[in-house]
Each structure stands twice: as C-alpha cells, then as structure tokens.
Write a structure and sequence with these properties.
The chain is mainly alpha-helical and 73 residues long. It contains one helix and no strands.
Length: 73
C-alpha cells in the first residue's frame, strides 16, 4: 500500500486511490481490519474503535440489567 503525503511536516496523509468526495462525508471510510502495511496510527484507530465498541456494548448490557431490576422491584 503506497501513501501520498502532501506535506511531510503535516501528519495527515491520504491514499492515492481513495474516493475524492470522501472528504465531504460525515464519517471517513475507515478500515475495520488490521493488515500488513498499515501505519501505527491506522492500527491504533482500528484497535481503539474495537475497544470503544466493546465498552459501549458492556454499558448497554449493564443498563438493561439495571432497568430490569428496577422494574421487578
């Protein structure tokens, strides 16, 4: 995977085959999988997205259990 960097002093880079109109999308297209050739930043984004998703699921499950206990009492 090759990267095209417009300004080497600026840490944001873009892939040359990326959709041109993607800059106007509310959410950027992110890779959900880790593969060879990814930068450390890309890998950390994938990992943190997965961790956040797991934590949100756990909070939702705890919230449902809490509400179920309140309804029963």
């Amino acid at each position: 995977m090759s990267k095209l960097t417009f300004n080497p002093d600026f840490s944001v880079s873009t892939l040359p085959h990326k959709d041109v109109l993607s800059v106007f999308k509310p959410h950027a297209d992110k890779s959900a999988n880790i593969h060879q050739g990814m930068s450390v930043k890309e890998i950390s984004e994938v990992v943190s997205d997965r961790v956040i998703a797991v934590v949100k699921e756990q909070f939702q499950a705890t919230k449902e259990q809490f509400h179920a206990k309140r309804v029963v009492k």
